[in-house]
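Bumping my old thread because nobody answered last time. Still need a sequence for this structure:
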């Protein structure tokens, strides 16, 4: 296997890692010396590990080559010893005999609290190359150390912990190791019992191991483990508590955020019924407020500059960043920043004081909301809401007061942040949305909606598409250059067209976006299986449009829109997936939205703000805000979809939902106006 190599004396451990490192090449592999390639040798090139100076530490073999060097004095040395392992990670460490004696003496001197006899029995602890920087502060056995020495170790470990913060997730395990050692030292300082150092082998598990196992599990490992286990009896069985992770919304951090959000909504008076702030054209544009937006530094942001984050991730205009910084509107961990080029660290919080002006939405004076009960299974109401198009369900992007949840809560007399939607529906889609203010109802209904039981959930949508929708699947022609596998079939008895095509999510480049969405769904072989059913209801020959019923068998995002575009019948007004909106209509709608925002800005005499924001900061935020710059600032800060210039309203309506399982829910809305 390894030709042209002689003088191989020792084949214990690590050989496979050496072969992987050098690909088994006879020109690269230098299998010489008493020990070769435990894990540390792969960190250097093979030629760098060879020394032709004589062995100064007792190793003797034919050609005099020494493969490796002492970890402590860097003299040529290549003999591993069974009891010379890293105290942190248990990797074998190369340490010459003179260095080993120095380390033994050092550890005896450090244990000043021990008797002379106990010092003689002190086991030396070594550190490998990866953990050599911890050689003066990380020890497995803490007994015998003076209080001052333990405190010094803690200080040193804290410094190393701080240096690892900038690594983000990649340094998580290293921080955990240091944190556990700090906790161990703290317990020792507080007089708590220090766990005894296990005298058994940490590798093979034998109490009488001489260390000759060399850190590798032998053939008797499984037998030793079986022998060490005590057969459980009815009296000795201890029930081990399993850690159950709380659901996302029940975690303490999420509960705290929800309470803070509710307090902000109440302080800024952002929860009002739809008729409030609605003009005679049906546009609802709330007055501006001054908010404090906070973002926790994510793993991919660590090491990047603050300016990069603000311009690339938060899409802020670079021209005004320096002025915002000087006005104290940009902070890190609550403190003003002096330089936008500062590197971000893990777990930091970036705060921005902003003049918050929401784009308008189109709403009726009152939302259609009905309440239902799910019987004896849970107490609480099931809300059925007829959502208008252009209205987002959740607070997202530039929307907070102009969201369906806030308006329904105000209209129905519910507390802010108390209403939970039970499924998703796109902003541009209208129709039936189920919600509840009861956690018990939410758990039952969401569980049924997520179930895979066939026929348990039935959804019926109505849509208007361009062209005459076919009843025969053979008349549907797919693009000739498509590179995906899909199936178009039909049922003659009910003239239903079935589309089976996998849907994947794809990031859109900014210049190719047709709406404000960052992600777009596409048909791709690596996507999730998706199936939709379509049926022609009527055809309008004058406008060349068809009214169809749609049934999503699976529930992928944008599924109906993507499948209809695939077969050549995009939904009317759906500019993201093949629909068209005339330019004159787009320009008119954008102009009306811009005027509504400017009117809301100019008519607001007192801008509400959080108590933590002072008057100067509020004035600076208003002065530097997008709306203060007029129509130009609005058009540069909001997309055409935000300004109702296309993509905000499509002719797709969620008409009915039916759940046929433990609960019988059959709900729906009125027919859409089109």
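Sorry it took so long. Here it is:
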């Amino acid at each position: 296997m390894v030709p042209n190599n002689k003088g191989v004396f020792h084949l214990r451990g690590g050989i496979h890692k050496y072969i992987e490192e050098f690909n088994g090449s006879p020109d690269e592999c230098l299998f010489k010396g008493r020990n070769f390639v435990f894990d540390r040798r792969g960190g250097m090139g093979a030629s760098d590990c060879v020394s032709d100076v004589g062995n100064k530490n007792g190793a003797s073999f034919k050609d005099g080559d020494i493969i490796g060097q002492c970890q402590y004095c860097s003299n040529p040395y290549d003999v591993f010893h069974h009891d010379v392992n890293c105290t942190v990670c248990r990797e074998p460490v190369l340490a010459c005999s003179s260095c080993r004696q120095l380390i033994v003496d050092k550890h005896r001197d450090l244990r000043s609290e021990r008797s002379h006899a106990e010092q003689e029995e002190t086991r030396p602890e070594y550190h490998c190359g990866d953990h050599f920087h911890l050689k003066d502060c990380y020890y497995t056995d803490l007994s015998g150390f003076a209080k001052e020495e333990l405190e010094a170790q803690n200080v040193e470990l804290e410094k190393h912990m701080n240096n690892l913060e900038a690594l983000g997730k990649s340094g998580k395990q290293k921080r955990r190791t240091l944190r556990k050692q700090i906790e161990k030292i703290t317990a020792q300082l507080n007089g708590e019992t220090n766990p005894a150092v296990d005298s058994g082998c940490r590798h093979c598990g034998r109490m009488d191991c001489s260390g000759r196992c060399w850190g590798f599990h032998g053939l008797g490992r499984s037998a030793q483990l079986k022998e060490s286990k005590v057969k459980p009896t009815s009296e000795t069985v201890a029930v081990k508590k399993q850690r159950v992770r709380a659901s996302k919304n029940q975690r303490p951090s999420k509960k705290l955020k929800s309470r803070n959000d509710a307090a902000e909504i109440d302080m800024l008076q952002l929860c009002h019924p739809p008729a409030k702030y609605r003009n005679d054209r049906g546009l609802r544009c709330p007055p501006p407020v001054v908010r404090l937006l906070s973002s926790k530094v994510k793993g991919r942001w660590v090491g990047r500059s603050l300016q990069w984050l603000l311009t690339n991730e938060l899409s802020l205009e670079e021209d005004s960043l320096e002025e915002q910084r000087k006005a104290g509107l940009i902070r890190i961990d609550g403190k003003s920043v002096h330089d936008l080029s500062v590197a971000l660290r893990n777990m930091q919080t970036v705060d921005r004081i902003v003049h918050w002006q929401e784009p308008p939405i189109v709403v009726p004076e009152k939302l259609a909301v009905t309440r239902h009960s799910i019987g004896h299974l849970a107490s609480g109401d099931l809300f059925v809401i007829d959502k208008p198009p252009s209205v987002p369900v959740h607070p997202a992007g530039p929307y907070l007061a102009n969201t369906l949840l806030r308006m329904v809560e105000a209209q129905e007399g519910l507390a802010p942040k108390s209403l939970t939607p039970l499924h998703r529906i796109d902003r541009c889609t209208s129709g039936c949305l189920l919600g509840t203010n009861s956690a018990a109802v939410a758990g039952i209904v969401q569980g049924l909606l997520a179930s895979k039981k066939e026929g348990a959930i039935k959804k019926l949508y109505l849509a208007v598409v361009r062209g005459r929708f076919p009843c025969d699947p053979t008349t549907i022609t797919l693009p000739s250059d498509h590179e995906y596998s899909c199936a178009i079939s039909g049922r003659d008895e009910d003239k239903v067209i079935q589309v089976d095509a996998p849907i994947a999510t794809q990031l859109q480049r900014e210049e190719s976006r047709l709406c404000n969405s960052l992600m777009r769904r596409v048909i791709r072989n690596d996507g999730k299986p998706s199936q939709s059913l379509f049926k022609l209801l009527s055809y309008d020959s004058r406008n060349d449009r068809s009214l169809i019923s749609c049934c999503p068998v699976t529930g992928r995002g944008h599924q109906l829109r993507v499948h209809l575009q695939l077969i050549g019948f995009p939904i009317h007004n759906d500019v993201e997936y093949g629909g068209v909106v005339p330019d004159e209509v787009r320009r008119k709608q954008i102009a009306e939205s811009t005027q509504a925002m400017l009117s809301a800005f100019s008519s607001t005499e007192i801008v509400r703000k959080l108590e933590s924001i002072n008057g100067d900061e509020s004035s600076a935020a208003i002065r530097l805000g997008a709306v203060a710059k007029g129509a130009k600032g609005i058009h540069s800060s909001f997309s055409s979809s935000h300004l109702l210039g296309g993509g905000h309203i499509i002719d797709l309506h969620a008409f009915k939902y039916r759940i046929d399982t433990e609960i019988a829910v059959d709900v729906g809305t009125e027919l859409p106006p089109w």
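The chain is about 25% helix and 15% strand. Let me know if any region looks off to you.
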